[in-house]
Amino acid sequence: MHRLVNLLAMMAAVLTLGAGLWQDWGLLATMKKMILSYLGMFFVAALLTLAVVLVPMFEKQPTEDIENKKKKALKAS
């Protein structure tokens, strides 16, 4: 997942560089915008990745599975 997040952030920085070259921005303005686009996309992609990873933790398990686990635990003890 880290590689995907980093790839998306680098793509944002490269697109910003392309826009800077196309619109003839200055070097410092282009570098500032590249850094901001990289960091912004990195944090947004990281938050989305975190959300995707955490979603299964909040899903409810079917009640049958819980009851079967309780029965097995009672039989084991």
Q: Fraction of residues in helices?
A: over 70%
What's the pLDDT, averaged over the residues? 88
Give start-end ranges of low-pLDDT stretches: none
How large a portion of the residues is in β-strands, by DSSP E?
under 5%
Instruction: Kindly name the structural category.
Output: mainly alpha
Query: How many strand units?
Result: 0
Using only C-alpha atoms, the radius of gyration works out to 23 Å
Q: How far is it from the N-terminal to the C-terminal residue, by CA?
A: 41 Å
Overall shape: it is rod-shaped
Report the order of strands and helices: HHH
How many helices does DSSP assign? 3
Largest sheet: none
Note down, in words, how this protein is organized.
- This protein has 77 residues and is mainly α.
- 88% of the residues lie in helices and 0% in strands.
- The two termini are 41 Å apart.
Protein traits:
77 residues, mainly alpha, 3 helices, 88% helix, rod-shaped
Brief characterization of the structure:
The protein has helices spanning 2-23, 27-58, 63-76. With 77 residues, it is mostly helical.
Give the topology.
Layout: H1 2-23, H2 27-58, H3 63-76
